[in-house]
Amino acid sequence: MTKPEVNVLNQIINAIKSTIGPPPCCLHEPLIDDSDLVSVKNNLNSGFVSSVGYDIQKFENLLCKLTGAKYAIAVVNGTSALHISLLASGIDKGEEVLVPSLTFVGTANAISYTGAIPHFVDSETTFLGIDFQKLDKYLQQNTNIINGACINKITNRKVSGIMPVHIFGMIGNMEKLLEIAKKYKLIIIEDAAEALGSFKNNKHAGLFGNCGCLSFNGNKIITTGGGGAVITNDKSLANKVRHLSTTSKVKIGYKFFHDGLGFNYRMPAINAALGISQLNKFDYLIKLKKKLHYRYLRKFKQFTKINFLTTYDHASFNNWINSIRLKESETTSKDFIISELNKIGYECRPVWELLPSLNHFRHCPSMDLSNATKIHSTVINIPSSAQLFKYSDD
Ligand SMILES: Cc1ncc(COP(=O)(O)O)c(C=O)c1O
Fold it and tell me: 105, 123, 102: which is closest to 381 by C-alpha?
């Protein structure tokens, strides 16, 4: 370790400590209190713990109210929400779906589950989502529109969809996304797993395209233990998602039929009960998240070799995970810094490994990924649980 590396590390430790207090601190923990215990207990007492039950409908209604979506379908996790959305949107085997290389593995796995092929695209460095400007040029050079479909000139396969990901709750240039989708005839399925409570121009993440997918895993802004949801304003799509995720079940009198291959993906009511109490304190959660974000911003502002990741739009984002970005001259220190922060008890993480580096995606088409590579080598996620705001050294 060199002296400058230690200096940068000490600056980060001091900024984190003066923002959230002494270690240990996890990267992200749910905010669970007595109201959650009461809600789950009431569900247990009701006896309706599984996939029929009043609590599921109530949770879905609360999601609609919060996001402004006309329809919400609660499912077992965010990955199943993505899978079912691709199927319900008509993405077919052998087609290509554009997806960032810098995202959780579940985004691209869901594409592979359908028999379609992930086609990896680059990210932009402000919001960390897809670089739509760069993608436009790439598609112009590498695809043709033939009979109303976008065809990859190299693989000859149809490029049928695009999956923008709202990384860490940030929403990028949605005007450009819509322009590209129109130009290249792409279905938009938004991975809004990390973005519950994030808005841009008063529109919630996940509602810019055909549908959006949320996750309520234990590390997300609210949790249902494990869980996810599809949100959409498209009635017919919502009906398809609900049907496919309920084993394609049709009730006729007292009998059940299954009119196709379906999936047992519906969220159990006991999880929805936890979701209800979590959503009931959502405004409070968001308030804590915002305060934590701006306190971190204040503390990191003084340093020249470390940037705190923020944008003018952050006021309308959920501020799920806070991140710092090392100056490019400091990238060799990234692993050392993360390792030292974890050793002293501040759980910090690098961003995901780029997906084309994983064995099961090595064969997939990909564009130049220089921005994603840069983000991967400079960004560090730092402790971000809402309750950490309660610490104060002010
Ligand atoms: C960007 C992104 N996409 C998809 C998922 C998948 O959600 P889940 O873990 O609920 O399946 C997650 C969360 O883990 C995520 O962060």
Answer: 102
Provide the angle, in degrees to the nearest 10, between the axes of the packed helices 54-67 and 34-46.
Answer: 140
DSSP letter (8 states) at residue 164: -
Ligand 1 mean position to 222 CA, how many Å? 13
Q: Are residues 310 and 230 in the same domain?
A: no
Q: Are residues 332 and 200 in the same domain?
A: no
**What CATH number corresponds to the domain at position 245?**
3.40.640.10
Contacts of 158 (CB under 8 A, 6+ apart): 94, 95, 96, 149, 150, 151, 152
pTM over 0.90: yes
From the CA of 167, give the closest atom in ligand 1.
Answer: 1
CB contact set of 61 (below 8 Å; sequence gap of 6+): 72
pLDDT of residue 139: 98
pLDDT for 332: 77
Domain end position, chosen among 280, 296, 320 = 280
Both 119 and 209 in one domain: the answer is yes
State which ligand 1 atom lies nearest to the alpha carbon of 79: 11
The candidate with the shortest Cα–Cα distance to 186, out of 156, 162, 210, 151, is 162
Single out the residue in 234, 265, 280 at which a domain terminates: 280
Tokens of 36: 């959650």
212 and 198 Cβ atoms separated by less than 8 Å: no
Q: What residues make up the domain containing 272? A: 34-280
Q: Which residue has the tokens 């810098």?
A: 102
* CB 103 less than 6 A from any atom of ligand 1: yes
Residue nearest to atom 10 of ligand 1 (CA): 78
Torsion of CA 110, 173, 64, 92, to 10 degrees: -30
Which of 337-344's residues contact partners 24+ apart within 8 Å by CB, and which partners? 337/5, 337/8, 337/9, 337/12, 337/380, 338/380, 340/9, 341/9, 341/12, 341/13, 341/16, 341/380, 341/382, 344/13, 344/23
Low-confidence ranges of the chain (pLDDT < 50): none
Q: What is the pLDDT of residues 257-311, one digit of tens each?
A: 999 999 999 999 999 999 999 999 999 999 999 999 999 999 999 898 899 999 9
How many CA within 13 A on the CB side of residue 354? Answer: 24
Are 203 and 326 found together in one domain?
A: no
Report whether residue 192 contacts ligand 1, using a CB cutoff of 6 Å: no
